[in-house]
Amino acid sequence: MTHHYDVVILGAGPAGTACALALQHSGLRVALVDKDQFPRDKVCGDAIPGLALKAIRQLSPTLYEELYALPQKAETRDSRLFAPDGGDIRVRWQIQTFNSPRLHFDARLLEMVQAHTTTQVQLDFSVKDIHITAEQVTLLPANGQAPLTCQLLIGCDGANSVAARKLTQRPLDRAHQCVAVRAYFQGLIDTDETTTEFYFLREYLAGYFWIFPVGDGVYNVGFGMLSSDVAAQKLDLKKVLLAITREHPQVAKRFAQASQLSKVSGFGLPLGGKSRPISGTRFLLCGDAASLIDPLQGHGIDTAIQSGILAARQAMRCFEQQDFSAAQMRWYEQAVYQQIGKKLARSYRLMRFISTKPWLVNAGFGLARHAWVKKWLLKVVG
Ligand SMILES: Cc1cc2nc3c(=O)[nH]c(=O)nc-3n(C[C@H](O)[C@H](O)[C@H](O)COP(=O)(O)OP(=O)(O)OC[C@H]3O[C@@H](n4cnc5c(N)ncnc54)[C@H](O)[C@@H]3O)c2cc1C
């Protein structure tokens, strides 16, 4: 027995849930499937970009308020950035935002889908293969459950996307791939629960080490770098992360009495800044499945949500015009490029430019102490 839908959204992370919320009044029969049960952990820095919340607010102020009311969070207004030479600057962000463990943040988004839409949510549904014909899409699950069919597939299945792998040509590209690790700690000294901290380290540019408060005295501590640099330097990032907390002159004293609450876990970050196919006949890709992570800062929750909403608009257009062709999907590709891709390309160029120049980063920090330079820099990095 198969179940047929107008739209199947594959993956219930920020991209998939935002897409389902944006289809709220579409009248379409929508299924949202995920391989996991929720709440589920997702390896992340847990810093929710202000633009992610802005996109939800533009969708619906009520949904925004519901998301903002999430109790497990640390509201963050400031960042402290440390240069390779140890100098630091403080930055106050314009948009209100928070950090929240993805365990809770993603579960809240899914609850909102269940409360406000007629979407059929199917969890524990791991897709192993996808077939597309001129008439329909078939999703084959891994565990002997009935397949799903639909008119349009929206692939929101993250960094290891089955949809991207099966439906587009995408060779491994370590120059556009980052790898990052994180663990939770408590008992840090000299921390402030409203400030995120970034350390740019001379030996590991253009990656960075972070300390992000996530509420209740808990900190998400992590480190990420370009995969090509990790491979070239033969680094074990899990070991590097713990070594920084023990040995780095500015960091180690902060961890003197800290306790580690979780093991160090890692995951890939598919970076944007490169033109790739993200749609085709009867399918669209969003979020990490479309490689939309900011290359300089490593955030992707905002672009996942933005692209999920753009995909929902494209889906409605497809059904209005009864056209699911690759040509019809170009509107989506152009919209993603205009709203997201252009900025990611600029960010990628900047990341590559500074990656071998610690002196430039130090000089940039020095200059950024001047108010107008800081303002300009904030505009450049978003
Ligand atoms: C260490 C690290 C730190 C990061 N820090 C930040 C940060 O602080 N801020 C930020 O904005 N971004 C950060 N990112 C990036 C961010 O995690 C991603 O950009 C974001 O999660 C993308 O959302 P998504 O919905 O596209 O994919 P995901 O959040 O990965 O969701 C994909 C969903 O698809 C499901 N799925 C996958 N495969 C299948 C399958 N075969 N069948 C069914 N379901 C499937 C998964 O279970 C998952 O629920 C970080 C990433 C890493 C690795």
Concise structural overview:
By secondary structure, the protein is an alpha/beta fold. It has helices spanning 14-22, 50-59, 61-68, 102-116, 162-167, 227-232, 237-247, 249-252, 301-321, 330-354, 358-367, 371-381, and strands at residues 3-10, 30-33, 47-48, 74-82, 88-99, 120-122, 127-132, 137-141, 148-155, 177-186, 195-199, 208-215, 218-226, 259-260, 265-270, 279-280, 283-285.
Provide an overview of this structure.
This protein has 382 residues and is an alpha/beta fold. It has 2 domains: 3-73 and 96-173 and 271-353, FAD/NAD(P)-binding domain (3-Layer(bba) Sandwich), CATH 3.50.50; 174-269 and 355-381, D-Amino Acid Oxidase, Chain A, domain 2 (2-Layer Sandwich). It contains 12 helices and 17 strands. The strands form 2 sheets. Strands 3, 4, 5, 10, 11, 12, 13, 14 and 15 form a 9-stranded mixed sheet that branches. Strands 1, 2, 6, 7, 8, 9, 16 and 17 form an 8-stranded mixed sheet that branches. It is globular. It starts with a strand and ends with a helix. The relative contact order is 0.17. Bound molecules: flavin-adenine dinucleotide. Flavin-adenine dinucleotide binds at residues 10-16, 33-36, 42-47, 49, 126-127, 156-159, 162, 180, 182, 222, 224, 267, 269, 287-289, 293, 298-302, 304. GO terms for molecular function: FAD binding; oxidoreductase activity, acting on the CH-CH group of donors, NAD or NADP as acceptor. InterPro entries: FAD-bd (IPR002938), FAD/NAD-bd_sf (IPR036188), Geranylgeranyl_Rdtase_fam (IPR011777), Geranylgeranyl_reductase (IPR050407). Residues 5-308 form the FAD-binding domain.
